[in-house]
């Protein structure tokens, strides 16, 4: 009997009609394996995963494979996004056994969950042979299988260990990390390493803060070049905005077409901060259109943001997005079609499959003549209308707490920067206004959804769908990212409620996830026991739970003046510091938080009767040092600790600048505030 029909996960529901007697992850599934004395197949994937769909079609929809699985195994299907703790443990096992990992992940385990053979995608013929071999080994070589499982569990325990060496994450380590990234930088194509190439959003966010602190021009150039290369490449949707998961090549041409919430949230934050620091028109446009993508394509009205858009459309990757020159002419007419083919590098040979091309910008258009920009925008609109008539990729509608936290933080920062550059003279001012209004509404609805649906009896739940919260408990990244988001929302709105909620989440994390020596586990002390308790300190596709928590602790400490949260952040970063020094590419979010602590972070409070229009507020946000917190409102505004005992000065607005809980005298002019913040940069 297939038991997936009542699942909340869209990925599990995709398998509800398989001829496999799937179980959801549960104690009952392992009890059934013990009762039947058979091994367990644990199949892990996610809804937008291309090769997960391929293996499902080839094997899990096949009657022969279903019969083999049903006769000789208990089969468990896991959504890695819903159960990151389960995914982390078995991914560590897979990497230990094979030297690599990925999805779909295929794990064979004993009835107590101990993995003894792991892999990823298997073509049908290989998978059938593997099932037969595992069945034979389980029946005839049980002792060897159990020994193998014990060795794998020992390896997992070592990889997930806490209590290792610590070091202060000081300026020398952060400078060394920036230097290491510079050595690994692809000066030709942007980014780091070769194919496949992933957007290095966290590394670039760190380098932006490093540039702010040190003035290092190379750190800024790496960010500028990589951001432009990605935005002009096929990995970026040139029509609707939003980034695909990664590029299959080293030069951002052909993407793996799934669009993930977490990537787009972190990239929105990157382009927003690049725009803030440089005024770059390309960064402005990409930030605006990525915010619009989040609000239009991923936001669920009245709820939060959905997890992803699928890589495939009707089983074909790229069906929605790729073009031929003839299709451009059909949509635009002969003259505009040929012009668009030249602009978007669509050729007769093609850059993708079957002679099609993924749209890329062949040249810069943001600084082009007004008539060129107008033509480009008109062509984009017509092509998007034509594309909307094609079949569209499915959307994974589950709401993940951690990823919604990333999106809320990014949109809150975008709203602040958009307000700085608002000008009725901008040719697309109406478009920017529309995006900020829609994005603001989506952000606030997502925050309310997390606060009212995902918070259950004071504890955070990982996922929800269709307004109903799921059973999986929140993991450390959920608590950290949501707490950071609530701190960002507090700064944007001046509402004390969000700061209070952030503090409650952080208190729970400190009480329930703490590990020896200042580290943190990824699961709570009362969570389901797995074969090991995960505690991964590295930043990969998303910030690690530890890095996410540190970012939340740093912001909350600065906003409240409570030093114990800063001390917890410093202790946690000390457990990551040795890795920062050796593997900078896998510690970007931790290094970004380290830059904030090294900077201060600065606490800027503007006492004003006009928090939205006061020039002092705009100056504080425009020139804020790395990781600074900025609040604005009436003196002693309830729920805003940084405004307590911060009066106007002679009836005028006043900015109070503090660093590490040590404050300067209040200033009342923009010039004085900017000078103070610039002086701050030179003393860091």
Distance between the termini: 63 Å
The secondary-structure class comes to alpha+beta
Helix count equals 24
What's the arrangement of strands in the largest beta sheet?
A: 1-3-2-4-5
Q: What is the share of helical residues?
A: 40-55%
Beta content: 5-15%
**What's the β-strand tally?**
20
What is the radius of gyration?
26 Å
Q: How would the global form be characterised? A: globular
Mean pLDDT: 94
Oligomeric status of the shown chains?
A: single chain
The stretches of 5 or more residues where confidence is low (pLDDT under 50) are none
Give a written overview of the molecule.
By secondary structure, this protein is an alpha+beta fold. It is built from 24 helices and 20 strands. The strands form six sheets. Strands 1-3-2-4-5 form a five-stranded mixed β-sheet, with helices on both faces. It has a five-stranded antiparallel β-sheet with strand order 8-9-12-15-16. Helix 9 (201-214) packs antiparallel against helix 10 (217-232), helix 11 runs antiparallel to helix 12 and helix 20 packs parallel to helix 22. The radius of gyration is 26 Å and the shape is globular. The N and C termini lie far apart (63 Å). The model has no long low-confidence stretch (mean pLDDT 94).
